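User: Can you predict the 3D structure for this chain?
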Amino acid sequence: MSVLADLLSTVFERRYFTSGAPDPRNRSLEELARDLLGSSGEVSGMALARHMLERYAGLGDDEKAAFFGFLARDLSFDPEAVRTALAAFEADPSRTTYDAFLAAAEPSRQELARRLNQVPGATGQLVAMRADLLRLMREEPGLGVVDLDLKHLFLSWFNRGFLVLRPINWSSPADVLEKIIAYEAVHAIDSWDDLRRRLAPQDRRCFAFFHPAMPDEPLIFVEVALTRGIPGAIHDVLSEERAAIPATEADTAVFYSISNCQAGLAGISFGNSLIKQVVADLAQELPDLRTFVTLSPIPGLWRWLSETGRALPDEPQARRAIAALYLLEGKRGDGTPHDPVARFHLGNGASVHAIHARADLSPNGERQSGGVMVNYLYDLAQISQNHERFAGAGRIAASSGVKSLAASADKTE
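Assistant: Here is the predicted structure, written as structure tokens:
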């Protein structure tokens, strides 16, 4: 049906552009944007939107930056109109005055994005457009207002209620498997054989969120190892020589890699919902699973050591202790954990469970944290309580062993 609808819309668009309407090829992208905002017909709007997206895709960075500058400058709201509408609402807080205020306060670039999104496949193109914007903002921070509007729309469009959880396995379509290889951001997948080792054995799982408007593009995925006991090193999980076990014999689910796939969806959080959904699904499938943990990197450790003038000890126990101190006491200016992975898992309600030296001997593992890794524990009975305490008071849940390690590091400084 979607193919038929797309075909029919293309036919109608061709009729539109041969019916005396202005040829879009003779108009600038900025003029097309104003035309699209002023269009009232569905066919004309679809045609203009499709042509705008095709035109944008062919732009270089300088032209894209100029287009975003136009959106920031010329498609904003009118402050005076907002003040007038707000005054009217304050004087008479009715449905009519509130509606007028909302209309005045919304930048027209938001409506432009909505109209662009009516084209089949446009959602993915708009996500790619925001990826361009985020990259160009590094040199032109004034474009940030455009990003705020796109992020506002994406928060609604990519609401959890629209997301679909799908298992990824060795039988999944090849184009999806290729994207898993490309998007893996924690432990690089070196080959198809490497991917097969992560997906084919019955003690391995992979799950991804998809959106109906981007059905072949994973948004985020998590790789899971089903094990006996909690592993303390990533090479134990990924080793070519390891012996697979029947899934029914596993007592632990280890989330060892979580990768966001779309740069244009930065700041749109899926990980919280993903982990909780996967935990629920695995617990239902395999009722003998008792423990749900991560085996996570500590990517901010080296930077924190540099900022605080500390050194990373050579001795493994001392290295574990300094990592524990970092995870429990290393904070940013806003009082939240310095480490981005810690912020994510602790915010989800996990606790710092165990720390392992010589756990990731890859070049990336050594570069990030001197090979140290951490288990975050998702205790189903404690997740809500841990989350509330962390969100409300910044309290970090941790095992007694990790607390002892951090205390021992404090004493040696």
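The mean pLDDT is 92. The longest strand covers residues 252-260.
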